[in-house]
Design a protein that fits this description.
- The chain has 4 helices and 3 strands, in the order βαββααα.
- It has a 3-stranded antiparallel β-sheet.
- Helix 3 runs antiparallel to helix 4.
- The longest helix has 28 residues.
Length: 117
């Protein structure tokens, strides 16, 4: 899949419990989000998981959501995802949101500096 030039990729991470298969395979939980910076909508998502269905389901929780709308997304995760990584998904989303905001600030600074060439 090709992504528009206005998209950015951010990764959020979180720790999972020691008995979680994701921890045993990856040491932590990661979520990758492709976000359209023109409207802050998540256009694609992926995560570290041991079952492909988990990745597909987690993707469905995020695609179309605003990365800036933490509470509604967290509430949806709590309502619909009932696996051992529920808390880790929420924490990883919060981490990705923080990195997205940082990336936006960097892009704003870059675009302002580009005219001074």
């Amino acid at each position: 899949m090709d992504y528009d030039k206005d998209t950015v990729y951010v990764v959020g991470d979180a720790q999972t419990s020691l008995n979680n298969p994701i921890t045993q395979q990856y040491s932590a939980f990661f979520i990758g989000l492709v976000v359209d910076t023109t409207n802050h909508k998540i256009v694609d998502a992926g995560c570290s998981s041991t079952i492909p269905l988990t990745s597909q389901f987690v993707r469905s929780l995020f695609v179309g959501q605003s990365i800036l709308a933490f509470e509604p997304v967290a509430d949806e995760i709590k309502r619909r995802y009932h696996g051992s990584s529920q808390k880790a998904i929420i924490v990883a989303f919060k981490d990705a949101q923080k990195k997205y905001k940082f990336a936006l600030n960097g892009r704003d600074c870059d675009s302002g500096a580009s005219g001074t060439g």
